[in-house]
Amino acid sequence: MEKDTIAQLIIWHQEDEHEKIVDRIMEIPQSDRDYETVSLLARAMNNLERYDEALQQLLAIAKLGENDPLWHFRVGYSYYYLEQYEEALREFEITNKLDPEDRDTLTLINWSRNNIDRKKKKLDQSASLKDLNVQTTVNEASKVPFGQDNGGASIEYLKDMYRDGYFPNFLVDKVKAELVKVVEFLEQGNQGIEETQAKLDFAIQAINELAEEFDENDSEIETVARESIAQTVGNILAFFGIEIDTEEAIRERDW
């Protein structure tokens, strides 16, 4: 590239006129662009947040840039802002080996490592949440055995909620836990209508209080949940032969 052109590109860079740099270099036939020209083009593209294009330009001259710390820095810069932090860190570490005095490189090494750590934590959190939501089988998750007095009979709790991925399993477990308390109460022989209704009222109020937690996890106690809870309550009442209408049984609901 001619010296006058290079001088103009430097001026445009200092004036943040990166579009002009790209336009001028793109006027040069690709076959006539040397290593320096492509490097300056990639730098301008990075400054314009055209990171994919910058990376393509840099990779096209990878062999020539192998021992150039500036080439590795610019490649790392593209990777960093493409949120490919592992690749960015690799390039910045090579830059640091080739030019240990560059402070910007050290800063970006730290930033890359921090982002890698944050990304890993997010993945670990997502994996943990997924584990909570994984249900090996609907029956295993939704059935809880009654006491031995009833011959080991079991009932399906909240079957449709467990089947629907919209509801986090760990929250469905909390709903189920309140209904299990009702069952435990009934198993103790407390099966009068008034006392049973009072226990159900308490359980439904406790479920109401879970609404905010469902919201925080992008879910809601809505139609499917309401019907699933009502069905489970109806099954419990039927099992113990308690004559309370299901709608009356869940009269304290806010959903």
UniProtKB/TrEMBL annotation:
Each TPR repeat, start to end: 69-102
Classification via PROSITE patterns: TPR (PS50005)
Record Pfam families: ANAPC3, DUF5713
Keyword Coiled coil applies: yes
Entry annotated with the keyword Coiled coil: yes
Signal peptide, first to last residue: none
Keywords: Coiled coil, TPR repeat
Coiled-coil residue spans: 193-227
Name of the protein in its database record: Tetratricopeptide repeat-containing protein
Organism (species): Paenibacillus macquariensis
